Amino acid sequence: MAFSRVLGQTRIKSVMGKTLKGGRLAHAYLLTGPDGVGKEAMALEICRVLHCRAQGSKKGQGLEPCGRCPGCQKMKGLVHPDLKLLFPIPSRWANKPPESANGGDLLGEEIAKKADDYYHTIRIPGGNNILIEQIRPLNRYLAFRPVESDWKVIIIFQADRLTPEAANALLHILEEPPSQSLFLLVSGQPGSILPTIRSRCQGVRFANVGEEEILRGLKEKGIPEERLSRLIAKLAGGSFGVALRLAAEDVDRNREGALGLVLGFTGGSPSQVSDLIEEWQGKDRYQLTEGLRLVSLWLRDAQILRELTARDGESCPHLVNQDRADRVVEVLDRFPRGDFLGAVAQVEKAVDLIDKNVYLKSILMNLAINLRALLGGK
Question: Can you say how many angstroms the Cα of residue 323 is from the centroid of all Cα atoms in its chain?
Fold first, then answer.
């Protein structure tokens, strides 16, 4: 079927498939939902369909790209002339091409990774915002007819990272969109996008991917080991993108590191807490975010175990860390009166602040203080 690289989301595939097949595309769509559930993958799959010349997608003759025509070949490397990808870049790239800013190789590597795996998130060090300098050239780009396709497609990843100036410039384009142009905005935080931009886009909401779907996807990616894949599927929290990142790392070590952060923040000396903060501050923002999410899973498991009448974690299918139920029991014993739900809320607040580019050391210091106050200890 079409959109084969997007796991789950059967309803959305059906809706978008009918829209493409009927040739009734809106000029702009806003794809929203949790991270890693297939929003970016779906945007690229739509682009594959539209740029496949064998299918004549504008006439609705088919939904499965042939993979052989010139359009499909160029989409394999995401180098189609009728496709523009926008994502956060460093401010130093604002007025000059990446090649002259020593960023050409990195940019090429990230695009290649995205072409190979639609669930890969493009990350450029220092790339915190989508700048107005990225939006202005769209006026000239859209002034001409498509080069090889029926549509010019502009995909904006992390659209919530548009600067105010960039958002206003985009709004002017969306107010009078050129014919044969399609905007696909992708965001996990649509509330941070201008309401006037949201109102000019047709919304498409994505749900979490089921564990069985994630297991199937991991198997297709060559991760057949049952215990590891099931653990990853649980830890991923409905995000296939997170599952792929976890599969590329040492999951057990990262879980222990997350638990060590909780124990260190709550029971360590001031110097030990300071060392932990320095260690975690040295991680990149993705590693830090994922690590804190693992922290929240340990805390949630402890709360679930507390609510059981018997301390038999191994028989509780609701524990994410079911294979380490003994460690969950240790957490509960360590914090017999701990406010686990309050602690989870503080961890989630820290993750949100990281996404908003707040100073990392300040986030971690406040988290250490709050966890110690909420959890206490023996």
Answer: 27
